[in-house]
User: What shape does this take?
Amino acid sequence: MIQEPSGQFDNFCRMSSIDFEYLLQLIGPRIKKQDTVFRDSIPTKVRLAVTLRFLATGDSFKSLHYLFKISPQVISLIVPEVCKALCEALRSFVKMPQNEHEWLEIAREFEIKWQFPHCLGAIDGKHIKIQSPINSGSEFYNYKHNFSIILLAVADSDYNFLFADVGTHGRMSDGGVFNDSMLYNKIYGPDSFFPQDAPLPDRHLPVPYVFVADGAFALSKRIMKPFPGTPPVGSQNRKFNSRLSRARVVIECAFGIMTSVFGVLKTNILLQPEKASIITLTCVVLHNFLKKSQHSYRMYMPEGNIDNVLEEQQLRSLDQVPIRTTENAREIRNEYASYFYSH
Assistant: This one.
């Protein structure tokens, strides 16, 4: 497939042969096995191909056995090992800004592309379906009536993941996962390096830089969510909900792009939560890697693969979770709403 100019290799591994060789060089020493007097080891190239094919299709290990002529038992060892090596090697592709200048650059891109100033990212959670874990009871059973772990992520204005945390029990809400996650500590901790509060364009009241989220999260100084219910057409609250939805679509699109390429996220992962978490994180780091690759970008994000932004009149009412918010947070949201209403 590498030699033929048919493009089948790109579809088989979900990346160009150049990026495949790059990853092979990057993780080869970590996954290479020694030959013995009894048998030759499985080549590193095959180990990587097996793993990428599993991520691309979500096929069972038995199905991959017929394709690669490797026993399902050995494949069950290869896939988590290669995924762990990929996560370690590509971890620098998923990281939050480390200083105020980098945060300001993200906010500038959000304002240019999505007309939402002072936005540092979009937050949301995604359920990753798994088989019922051993002796877990209902811990992983979610409101969609299946078993899952939750991927909590933050995306920038260009559909890149800035942060990802996966493995929390599926029965928890997105807001509950956020409150117990490292992301909460990063946002509200002393080492966040966020820009200083500043007025919105052509305004006078200083407001903080914020993240946008849906109604499952609690409104706070750093988290903006929509006004509840269905505000009247043309109202200030409806204008705010429209702008927030426009900015928040980036995290939904990031999940959609990743799921469309890595079919394993569409299936019921027949592994225990620990291994399913590693596989999910591998898809996240590969998402950012392939998006930023000049060799695989067009294949990974073809034209027309991004959802259109909903117009204001098409907004639908979102399910709201009754969460107590502070008066200060409501004042901040009202200031954003007033700004959007006048712009």
